[in-house]
Design brief:
About 15% of the residues lie in helices and about 25% in strands. It is of the alpha+beta class and about 240 residues long. It has 3 domains: about 5-120, OB fold (Dihydrolipoamide Acetyltransferase, E2P) (Beta Barrel), CATH 2.40.50; about 120-190; about 195-243, no CATH class. The strands form 2 sheets. A 5-stranded antiparallel sheet has the order 3-2-1-4-5, with no helix packed on it. The protein has a 3-stranded antiparallel sheet with strand order 6-7-8, with no helix packed on it. The longest helix has 17 residues, at about 170-185. The structure holds zinc ion.
């Protein structure tokens, strides 16, 4: 029997320490996250200091909260590969979570997250406000600043109990799911026309009385037409001129 080991993990964790590797050039970082089945905090290694330039430890020795993507690397010496900790793990992505919505510091310009896996022909980055239709296959690299803001909102909604982690779900997956749907369906959604009905996801038309409404699907064949009127959401108005 073989135990399946994930070949990639994506998680949010605080950086506990960052420094130079002992025996060679390059950096080492301990993060507040453990591989499944391991009792030790994960240590990540890398050669390129640019990658971790924005990971700054504060005066109390606390590091930032980052979103990591790691891929399984080589098997460690004298290990069987039975456990995930038998392998080296290569950091293929790191994103800061502290990106401020007020533009005080926009990490995207300074430290683009390392993309994983590398795409064969990455499309040129779009202007920041390009709407991405929901059903478009997601090839445009996401705007890191906007994604960071969506991540912050997702965490905020969870912490406030507005969108708590559903039973049976784990936190990180839920944060990612919220972040992605905020990003795709809100942040990058095209701006709707005036008088749009967000509840039924359709445009309203102006009626003869000047009010804005759209037809609602009939509940029974012999019912008269009914309307959803702006300002009276949740009502089923049977004569659009009666307001
Ligand atoms: Zn409506």
């Amino acid at each position: 029997m073989t135990t399946a080991i994930e070949s990639q993990y994506h998680f949010t964790a605080e950086v506990k320490s960052k420094g130079k590797q002992q025996n060679r050039d390059g950096w080492a970082m301990v993060v507040d996250w453990k591989l499944p089945g391991s009792q030790y905090d994960l240590t990540l290694y890398g050669q390129d200091w640019e990658t971790v330039r924005d990971v700054v430890m504060d005066e109390k020795g606390q590091g930032p909260l980052c979103i990591f993507t790691i891929n399984q690397g080589n098997l460690k010496k004298d290990k069987t590969g039975q456990y995930s900790s038998d392998y080296f793990w290569d950091m293929v992505g790191i994103e800061q979570t502290w990106i401020a919505g007020d533009g005080e510091r926009v990490a995207s310009d300074e430290a683009p997250p390392v993309q994983a896996p590398p795409k064969p022909n990455p499309a040129p980055a779009p202007p920041a406000r390009t709407p991405a239709p929901k059903d478009q296959p997601f090839e445009i690299p996401p705007n890191p600043a906007a994604l960071g803001a969506c991540h912050n909102h997702a965490v905020d909604f969870i912490v406030r109990g507005i969108l708590p982690v559903p039973e049976g779900r784990e936190l990180f997956g839920w944060v990612r799911e919220l972040r992605d749907s905020f990003y795709r369906e809100i942040n990058q959604a095209p701006v709707a026309p005036l008088h749009y009905c967000y509840q039924h996801d359709q445009e309203r038309r102006q009626g003869p009385d000047g009010g804005w409404g759209h037809k609602l699907p009939k509940e029974a064949d012999d019912h008269a037409d009914s309307y959803c009127i702006e300002g009276r959401e949740g009502w089923r108005v049977f004569d659009a001129s009666q307001r």
